[in-house]
Amino acid sequence: MKLAFNTWVYSSFPVWVPSYPLDETIERIAKIGYDGIEIGAAAPHAYPDYLSTERRREIKQLLQANGIALSSMLPAPGGGPGFNVSSPMPEERAAAIDQYTKVIRLCAELGGKTVIYVAGWQIYGTTREQAWDWSRQALSALAPIAREAGVTLVIEPTSADSNLVDDCDDALRMMREVNEPNVKLMFDTYHVLYRNEVASDYVYRFGKDLHHVHFADSNRLPPGEGKGEFPSVVQALHDIGYDGYIAMEIGYDRRDVSPDAFARRALENVKGFLGSVRRDGTRA
After folding, report:
1. pTM here?
2. At what angle do helices 53-65 and 90-109 cross, to 10 degrees?
3. Rounded percentage of the chain residues whose pLDDT exceeds 70
4. Could you say which DSSP state residue 120 is in?
5. Closest Cα to residue 76, out of 120, 41, 121?
6. pLDDT tens digit string along 118-177?
7. CATH superfamily label, 2-275
8. How many CB atoms lie under 10 A from the CB of residue 135?
9. CA torsion 146→148→151→155, rounded to 10°?
């Protein structure tokens, strides 16, 4: 398993400050000791429309120079454009698909192979099944684009922020309905905690289809500093033979945070959990 850090807490999404240029963010995360970086597709970091060909080349070279891999990318849903793939507005759905396409291609250009799919949210006046169908159609349209780019799309249940793909069963259903080989699953422990569920259950149920993981404790604290129970999640990941990234997506929901301190504490805490894994094949 490899450890990555998500850039939201160093950027302007969704809270405007603290905020740092992407070059500075890459250097800081690399120096702290992470294997990978998960870059959010938002200004001032990596909004696709703002990145020239030359700038994309610079970012890739900067990643290589700092010895850190692009573990994954994710869009910035909400805000003015919306980018809701389940919107009742056809113009917004089309714009969301276009934005995902740009993020997929940018991710591939920078050497990444994973893009997170947020399935959108149901708007009042739209039935849940209609919103679901629009999201499924969008993902089905994006899957071949991602496959051509060598990118896997991972469906994330986002119960704390949306109302469509809420839990383990929803994510599994969406994946099975789309039925594409490069459409897999992920989960964020923060959303599992929001539902008062057990995060290790997600690991065992997703099994071989689990392709990416977000770690965050309650209140988006570093793992191990809230009410989450992370040793059992790490043990479950070991049990299923997971060898992907664990990305820390923490601290970005408020201004009063020190990004470097959160990044360091998360790394230290999760390394401790990894060191406690039982190797005899039994569950903790």
Report:
1. 0.96
2. 50
3. 98
4. -
5. 41
6. 999 999 999 999 999 999 999 999 999 999 999 999 999 999 999 999 999 999 999 999
7. Divalent-metal-dependent TIM barrel enzymes (3.20.20.150)
8. 28
9. 30
Write down the residue that tokens 């039925």 correspond to: 179
Is residue 209 exposed (0-12), middle (13-18) or buried (19+ Cβ within 10 Å)? middle
- Domain residue spans of the chain: 2-275
Residue 281 has pLDDT above 60, yes or no: no
| Nearest to 117, CA basis, from 140, 95, 94, 133 | 140
Q: Which residues contact 168 (CB under 8 A, 6 or more apart)?
A: 157, 187, 197, 201, 202, 205, 206
Q: 102 is written with which tokens?
A: 């740009």
Could you say which DSSP state residue 12 is in? T
**CA-based nearest residue to 150, from 120, 98, 105, 95:** 105
Residue of 2, 10, 14 whose CA lies nearest to 112: 2
Nearest to 2, CA basis, from 57, 61, 72: 72
> What is the chain's length?
284
SS3 state of residue 212: strand
> Tokens 């005899």 map to which residue?
280
